[in-house]
Amino acid sequence: MQILDINTGKGTSVIFDSLTMVVDALKVSASNIPISNGESAIITLDVTRENVALGTMFVGSVLTHDSDPIGDNQDLEVLITTPTDKHVHMEIEAAAGGASEFHIYENPTITDNGSGIYIWNKNRDSSDLTNTVSGYSQPSWTYVGVPIVSRYIPGGTILAYGGESTSTFVFDNDEDYILQVTNRAGTAQPMSIKFQFYTHDV
Q1: Is 174 within 8 Å of 83 (Cβ atoms)?
Q2: Average per-residue pLDDT in the chain?
Q3: What is the percentage of the chain residues whose pLDDT exceeds 90?
Q4: What pLDDT shows up at residue 153?
Q5: Over the stretch 82-94, which tens digit does the pLDDT of each residue have?
Q6: Which residue from 88, 38, 80 is spatially nearest to 176, judged by alpha carbons?
Q7: What is the pLDDT of residue 114?
Q8: What domains does the chain contain, in order, with CATH numbers?
Q9: Quick one: three-class SS letters along the chain?
Q10: Could you tell me how far CA 49 lies from the centroid of its own chain?
Q11: How far apart are CA 74 and CA 131, in angstroms?
Q12: With a threshold of 0.85, does the pTM exceed it?
């Protein structure tokens, strides 16, 4: 093998045990990595927490209280509209006071968006308010869309769908989605839907 001498520009032939060199290099590298010194230890973040820290993670939610519950066989719905130039990495959490179903529909036919949902930057110290994803509660539609997820929510539990540890939905650009929780408890129940996301260019 030839090793280039940076001073002379000439190669020098050497014979070595490559495995030994690799092991030795790893030992040297490992000895220089602090793993218990709090001031200089390597810090790792998952994608979600990194985006929160960077001020590029946004969140919106809708909640029906005990005083205004969702009736039996009725729906709590959120319409998500995505921008033309962004893909949207979406994490969703749905909850209900009783047995219910959770659905995600793609490409519905919307006749009225419904009430706007304010979307917050999860980094409350960030001045970035340039989010281009929109959310609405209780939209009107003539076609609910193509079902891409259908799940059962046992009574009184939370369904978390998404997150880096399981699976993250990447919503297409320039598309509409309906997040829907349907009450199957037999009596009116409180419900909520939370969605959080970050985006990247198409």
Answers
A1: yes
A2: 78
A3: 46
A4: 85
A5: 999 989 999 998 8
A6: 80
A7: 97
A8: 47-201 (2.60.120)
A9: CEEECCCCCCEEECCCCHHHHHHHHHHHHHHCCCCCCCCCCCCCCCHHHHHHHHCCCEEEEEEECCCCCECCCCEEEEEEECCCCEEEEEEEEEEECCCEEEEEEECCEEEECCEEECCEECCCCCCCCCCCCEEEECCEEEECCEEEEEEEECCCCEEEECCCCCCCEEECCCCEEEEEEEECCCCCECEEEEEEEEEEEC
A10: 10
A11: 31
A12: no
* Token digits of residue 105: 């529909």
What is the spatial distance between Cα 158 and Cα 97, in angstroms, rounded to a whole number? 9
Enter the tokens of residue 70: 């969702």
The four Cα atoms 85, 89, 93, 94 give a dihedral, to 10 degrees, of 40
Sign of the CA dihedral with 172 first, then 174, 175, and 176 last: positive
Write out the two tokens for 182.
């349907």
Give Cα 57 to chain centroid, integer Å: 8
Paired sense of beta strands 75-81 and 176-183, if any: antiparallel
| Torsion angle, alpha carbons of 110, 112, 118, 121, to 10 | 20
